[in-house]
Amino acid sequence: MSYDTTVDADGDGTWDDHTIESDGSGGYNILVDQNGDGQTDFVGHDHDGDGLIESAEYDNDFDGKFETHTGDTNGNGWQDREVADRNHDGNTDLAGVDTNEDGTFDHVVADNNYNGRADTVYDDRNLDEKYDSVKTDSDEDGQWNTTTDANYDGNFDTVHYGDASQNPYNAV
Amino acid sequence: MSEFDFDHDGSADHGITADYSDGHSETVVDTNHDGFADYAGTDADGDGNDEVGYTHQYGAGHDLDTATIDRDDDGDADQQLGDRNHDGRFDTNSLDRNDDQRVDAVYADDNYDGVVDHSTLDRNFDGNADFDAKDYDQDGQANVTTTDSNFDGNYDTVHYGDTETNPLAGQSPNPFANN
């Protein structure tokens, strides 16, 4: 097998050591152990053998189960969409997009209580690969509270209570 | 927020007014006849309106701890300075910036060290406070700023502007952290 490719599974800008195996239908699977625990936690799929990974499976929480599926929507090899079933109940509970393909999904919608409704939105508004806005609707009444890093210094510093029922300053 | 006004009964049986040849007058009033002045005011231009009046507003005793000021001499008070702890220094400054007879800005030195550490504003002049900033460690960065962003009468946003005391500092959300 003369096939090889490069892979940066976690998007940190460093190529990862990897293992290649044939997928049995003309393509290849690229296996990476991101955290060095001896277990594969990333499997990239190069279905046409052109050296670019079209889709991938991630075990982002390193529990031995691949809960996240990613895709490359523009054919450049970068995984720019993700969906995940973090609790392995068969239902998608997270979806994200990496708009600038920097390796961080900069807009992520999640169902953190796994009831089938989105309740949290993570955003990297300035695309510096750190989330600086988290919107939550924990009681799922359609009113959202937003925690932000207003000055992008890496620390959240502002909370806007858009849900009047959860506003501790209400009527003060 | 609140209202302020010159607070005295200047009727003849309670007060004394001294008129001076330069046109200004000074009034001292002992409303309750206890021997202590309850009001002392100055009318610098003799137009009948005191520009500054001193009263007792805070705590026990008879200190004239509050100065009510009519800065534009239109007969309505538009600033009030208070010495809440009677240490001889004003520690609150309340303003009526748009002359609607309502307080719309208050700057206070809550720990009485001579430096303003607490500001409250009614930014849209609707009578409700909608901005409150406290710099309790007095490093020049407000520790907590609360605002009423939609002016509905309820504070709804809190901003921690001082990294040293920001309770949210160090949080790094990860959608995959707790599965």
Can you characterise this structure?
The complex is a heterodimer of chains A (172) and B (179). With 172 residues, chain A is mainly beta. Helices cover 0% and strands 29% of the residues of chain A. Chain A is built from no helices and 12 strands. Chain A has strands at 19-22, 28-32, 42-46, 55-58, 68-71, 81-84, 94-97, 107-110, 120-123, 133-136, 145-148, 158-161. Chain A has a 12-stranded antiparallel β-sheet, with no helix packed on it. In chain A, a hairpin with an 8-residue loop joins strand 3 (42-46) and strand 4. Chain A is elongated and about 70 Å long. Chain B has 179 residues and is mainly beta. Chain B has a 12-stranded antiparallel β-sheet with strand order 1-2-3-4-5-6-7-8-9-10-11-12, with no helix packed on it. In chain B, strand 1 (15-19) and strand 2 (25-29) form a beta hairpin. Chain B starts with 14 loop residues before the first strand and ends in a 20-residue tail after the last strand. The model of chain B has no long low-confidence stretch (mean pLDDT 91). Chain A binds chain B through residues 60-61, 63, 67-68, 84, 86-87, 94, 96, 108, 110, 112, 120, 122, 130-131, 134, 147, 150, 153, 155-162, 164, 167, 169-172, and chain B through 146, 149, 154-161, 163, 166, 168-173, 175-177, 179. Strand 12 of chain A pairs antiparallel with strand 12 (157-159) of chain B, so a sheet runs across the interface.
Main sheet makeup of chain A: 12 strands, antiparallel
Radius of gyration of chain B: 22 Å
**Unreliable spans of chain B:** none
Number of strands of chain A: 12
Count of helix runs of chain A? 0
Which of globular, elongated, flat, extended, rod-shaped describes the shape of chain B? elongated
Please state the CA-atom Rg of chain A, rounded to the nearest Å.
19 Å
Short précis:
The complex is a heterodimer of chains A (172) and B (179). Chain A has no helices and twelve strands.
